[in-house]
């Protein structure tokens, strides 16, 4: 398993070794010892899975306060552009984002620490799965509008299908104002 640092502190891209033969393939999708070595949260308490068709954008979501979640995300099948945005109060990279293509062929993953918003655009119908370090709490959920002009994320989707909720999140500037500078 190869673990790569990104330009955003504590965000990691993870590339498992895939062992293929005539029967199919095998890979390790999680290794506690390797994650601990890199300082990543290792207490996973909830696993989630979704299916989305190409052209859908989900996000940018986060959980606040004591319900904040680190996530380990990947696609089982399909292809997505996965994005995380640093919302940590006082962070030198506050308001910066990291994007990576998660692909069924690579089975690569992204580790998203607490204090980040997260979302993805579906480029090829995808089964998306993620581990969470905390349980979901509806009252603690929040988000940033997916097409925030300050972030200027190129999602690679021309006319995305969005949930009602994902169309109404505040932009980054309004988020800073109402949250007093970050999560």
TrEMBL record:
Mention one GO molecular function.
dTDP-4-dehydrorhamnose 3,5-epimerase activity
Q: Which UniProt keywords apply?
A: Isomerase
Q: Per its UniProt record, what InterPro entries does this chain match?
A: RmlC-like, RmlC-like_jellyroll, RmlC_Cupin_sf
Q: Where is this site: Participates in a stacking interaction with the thymidine ring of dTDP-4-oxo-6-deoxyglucose?
A: 136
Catalytic residues identified in the record? 61 (proton acceptor), 130 (proton donor)
Would you kindly state one Gene Ontology biological process term found in this protein's UniProt entry?
A: dTDP-rhamnose biosynthetic process
Q: Which GO terms describe its cellular component?
A: cytosol
- Please name one Pfam family that this protein belongs to: dTDP_sugar_isom
Decide whether keyword Isomerase is in the record: yes
Which pathway is this protein assigned to?
Carbohydrate biosynthesis; dTDP-L-rhamnose biosynthesis
Query: Which PANTHER family has this protein been placed in?
Result: DTDP-6-DEOXY-D-GLUCOSE-3,5 EPIMERASE, THYMIDINE DIPHOSPHO-4-KETO-RHAMNOSE 3,5-EPIMERASE
Give the family this protein belongs to, as stated in its UniProt record: Belongs to the dTDP-4-dehydrorhamnose 3,5-epimerase family.
Q: How does it assemble?
A: Homodimer.
Kindly provide the name given to this protein in its UniProt entry. Answer: dTDP-4-dehydrorhamnose 3,5-epimerase
What organism does the UniProt record list as the source? Cyclobacterium xiamenense
């Amino acid at each position: 398993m190869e673990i790569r640092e990104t330009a955003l502190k504590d965000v990691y891209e993870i590339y498992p070794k895939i062992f293929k033969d005539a029967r199919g393939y095998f890979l390790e999708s999680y290794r506690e010892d390797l994650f601990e070595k890199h300082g990543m949260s290792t207490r996973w308490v909830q696993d989630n899975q979704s299916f989305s068709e190409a052209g859908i954008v989900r996000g940018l979501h986060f959980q606040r306060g004591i319900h904040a979640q680190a996530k380990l995300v990947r696609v089982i099948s399909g292809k997505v552009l996965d994005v995380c945005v640093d919302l940590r109060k006082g962070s030198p990279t506050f308001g910066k984002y990291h994007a990576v293509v998660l692909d069924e062929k690579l089975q690569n993953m992204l580790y998203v620490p607490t204090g980040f918003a997260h979302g993805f655009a579906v480029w090829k119908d995808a089964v998306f799965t993620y581990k969470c370090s905390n349980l979901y709490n509806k009252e603690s959920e929040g988000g940033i509008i997916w097409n925030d002009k300050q972030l200027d994320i190129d999602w690679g989707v021309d006319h995305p299908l969005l949930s009602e909720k994902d169309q109404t999140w505040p932009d980054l500037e309004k988020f800073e104002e109402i949250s007093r500078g970050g999560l």
